Amino acid sequence: MKAELAAKGVKITILSNSLGYSREYIGRMMKKDSNPGITDLLRVCDAAEISFVYVFTGKRENPAFDGVFNEMSKLTQKELKALKEHLQSEPMQAEAIEGPGKT
């Protein structure tokens, strides 16, 4: 769950405030050996817009993204912000290549 939240840029403090949970409780939910209630887990996943199936089972609907999310979880907040800004920027456009005989 921690990697998913980091990949989405979700702040634990904001998430906990919106759900009415303490920041500490959300933090404990993210520990590897934690055992949060399923209702709480569903609420957190729904509020953060992350995959409950992945958090609960460790399996994605599209496993091709596993490596991407794993690497994203290693980024600093500054790096995540820069990546987010880059992804939200205008898409690159192919430019026409001009040369002899080309118009």
Question: What report would you give on this structure?
Answer:
By secondary structure, the protein is mainly alpha-helical. Helix 2 packs across helix 3 (23-29). It has helices at 2-8, 12-19, 23-29, 38-48, 52-57, 66-72, 77-88. The chain folds into two domains: 1-57, 434 Repressor (Amino-terminal Domain) (Orthogonal Bundle); 62-88.
Report the CATH topology name of the largest domain.
Answer: 434 Repressor (Amino-terminal Domain)
What summary fits the major beta sheet?
none
User: How many domains make up the coordinates?
Assistant: 2
Q: What's the helix count?
A: 7
What's the quaternary structure here?
single chain
So what's the CATH class of the largest domain? Mainly Alpha
Distance between the termini: 52 Å
Number of strands: 0
Helical/strand content category: mainly alpha
Helix percent reads 55-70%
Averaged pLDDT:
79
Specify Rg, calculated over alpha carbons. Answer: 19 Å
Named at the architecture level, the CATH assignment of the largest domain is Orthogonal Bundle
The backbone outline, from C-alpha atoms, is elongated
Approximately what portion of the residues adopt beta-strand conformation?
under 5%
Please identify which CATH superfamily of the largest domain we are dealing with.
Answer: lambda repressor-like DNA-binding domains
Low-confidence stretches: none
